[in-house]
Write a structure and sequence with these properties.
With about 575 residues, the protein is mainly α. The protein is about 70% helix and about 0% strand. It folds into 2 domains: about 260 residues, MetI-like fold (Orthogonal Bundle), CATH 1.10.3720.10; about 220 residues, MetI-like fold.
């Protein structure tokens, strides 16, 4: 009997056997980004352009509404005021932040690390806190009212001072990163050619930092133009666009008008996104492969002057924070300064009571857990897994979607959620006002920064890990769990810390989404201030500040402990 020769099929490459699972995970992440980001933003744009109508009002729509808004008796003046405030804050904050960053990165000033840490404290407070502090310092019964010469803090300068406090750490972080990128050979060459410190600064330092300065100006300008926390507290009759958008939706139920104003607030954010992309490309192109790190030499006069400057900035930051904290601990400012915790009796105040604080803790915890897992895993799927020809489009689509929040202000995203999730024809309509929707909105709002942090960490890992795992027929998911995740734990915890603080302090992204049962602490601050309970508003702001700092410190300690146990290989000598 003759045996028939049969041909065996070629073995399927191991990595292809799990390709459908990985493709499904990527598709699920893209669908979530579409649901929580792309569709709400698209709905807001459609609402503003009149291609769809809101179920909540009978406003005019489309071009007629745009013309009506632009021709309003106060609208162009409001645009001018917004531009004036944003430009003034940028003109004050960016040079100050650049000087601070220069002191931290380019001098031998003592206490550089301490100064840099203290400068980050405004990030842990809601944007309404500086407005509240200014009221206690320069308001009608303010501590330094006599210094104002009778001028009122409510208006242009009140907004400028409050926004300067709020935006300073953002500009400082960007400029510190810019000044970190320096080629020491240029400074050695300038010194060898006899150039003095001032000429070296003008011809080497400033040209190398110009794109970072442009980016800082655009960032500060956008943050001020889209923030309504500070103007709500100390703006008085000086109305700006962000406050008008909030009032149009919440106070007047004019959803289409709010969408048009939101569309206008999107323009400076898009400009910032474009400038940031340009800055990033130019910075990378400016770094030569043979660049050497710059080591500044000691200079007592220079270091002493910069220590004085940074000390004044930190003194202002600490004064603002101490004022809000101190005001929350007295009975009745300024008539009865006896220490008391009556302002912390939130259940007897308007705004939401202790329920608001518990909701914020819940929101922050859920955002931290689910947001960190989703964003880091999504970054790993894009950066460390392969694609097939049929799924090659998923990676650029995910990258585009996850970078979009950088160009979408929180107020605009919140408006998009109103139009999309609160529409009666949407089957997800029941989510409106729930904690689930606010968690989703907060994750989407913070996705870009966390994603970029994750990508930077993943980019430091050699692709050989995935190649070796594939050759040993170890699944990509197992490699992710056993190798990639442990090696990137510092970045994971950094993302968790950022998401927790953002969820505790956010106002604009969730101001339209809460219900009486899901009111948040940051929203309660706004509601208490509107009701005239400024002492309790200061107390709730203080509680948010302290909670954010304590949790951040705990995560920092956890990170150090985990790094000592799992990252010893980084410092092991060969």
């Amino acid at each position: 009997m003759t045996a028939l020769a049969t041909s065996q099929p070629a073995p399927i490459p191991f990595w292809r056997t799990e390709a459908p699972l990985l493709a499904g995970m990527k598709l699920a992440w893209l669908l979530l980004l579409t649901l929580g980001l792309l569709l709400p933003v698209a709905m807001m744009l459609l609402q503003a352009t009149g291609l769809t109508t809101s179920a909540h009002s009978s406003d005019q729509h489309g071009l007629a509404l745009v013309v009506q808004v632009l021709q309003g008796p106060n609208f162009l003046a409001m645009v001018g005021r917004t531009l004036a405030v944003s430009g003034t804050v940028a003109a004050i904050v960016v040079p100050l932040a650049f000087a601070f960053a220069y002191a931290v990165q380019r001098t031998r000033m003592p206490l550089r690390g301490t100064m840099r840490t203290l400068a980050m404290l405004p990030l842990f407070a809601p944007s309404l806190l500086p407005g509240i502090a200014l009221v206690y310092l320069f308001g009608n019964q303010g501590l330094f009212k006599v210094w104002t010469g009778g001028a009122s803090i409510y208006g242009f300068w009140g907004i400028v001072l409050g926004e300067a406090f709020y935006t300073f750490p953002f500009a400082m972080m960007l400029l510190v990163s810019t000044l970190t990128l320096a080629d020491g050979r240029l400074y050695d060459a300038a010194k060898a050619m006899g150039a003095g410190p001032w000429r070296t600064f003008r011809t080497v330092t400033l040209p190398g930092a110009r794109y970072g300065l442009f980016g800082a100006v655009a960032l500060v300008f956008t943050l001020v133009a889209t923030d309504f926390g500070v103007p709500t507290v100390v703006g008085g009759s000086y109305q700006v666009l962000a406050v008008e958008a909030y009032k149009a939706v919440v106070g007047q139920q004019q959803f289409a008008r709010g969408a048009v104003i939101g569309l206008m607030l999107l323009l400076p954010a898009l400009l910032t996104f474009a400038v940031e992309r340009l800055v990033q490309r130019r910075q990378h192109a400016a770094l030569a492969s043979r660049a050497q790190p710059y080591q500044p030499e000691p200079d007592r006069l220079r270091d002493g002057l910069f220590l004085l400057l940074t000390g004044l900035v930190i003194g202002w930051v600490l004064l603002m924070l101490a004022t809000a904290i101190g005001a929350s601990l007295v009975k009745l400012w300024p008539y009865n300064l006896e220490l008391s915790l009556r302002n912390y009796d939130f259940d007897n105040m308007d705004g939401g009571g202790w329920l608001a604080y518990r909701n914020s803790l819940k929101l922050a915890a859920l955002t931290t857990v689910f947001g960190t897992a989703l964003i880091f895993t999504g970054a790993w799927l894009v950066e460390k897994t392969r694609t097939t020809r049929a799924t090659a489009w998923l990676h650029p689509a995910i990258r585009f979607a996850v970078l979009l929040p950088m160009a979408v202000p929180g107020l605009v995203l919140g408006l998009g959620y109103v139009f999309f999730f609160n529409h009666p024809d949407n089957p997800l309509n029941g989510l409106y006002g729930s904690m689930t929707l606010m968690v989703l909105c907060t994750i989407m709002h913070c996705a870009t920064a966390a994603h970029l942090t994750s990508v930077a960490s993943l980019g430091q890992l050699d692709p050989v890990f995935e190649a070796v795992s594939a050759s040993l027929k170890v699944s990509a998911l197992r490699t992710y769990w056993r190798v990639t995740l442990p090696m990137c734990l510092p970045a994971v915890l950094a993302c968790a810390r950022f998401l927790f603080v953002s969820a505790m302090t956010t106002v604009s992204a969730v101001i339209f989404l809460y219900s009486p049962d899901t009111v948040l602490a940051s929203v309660a601050v706004l509601n208490m201030d509107d009701a005239g309970d400024i002492g309790p508003a200061a107390a709730m702001s203080t509680l948010i500040l302290v909670t954010s700092i304590v949790v951040s410190l705990l995560l920092e300690l956890a990170m150090r402990g985990i790094v000592r146990r799992t990252q010893a290989w980084r410092s092991a000598s060969l």
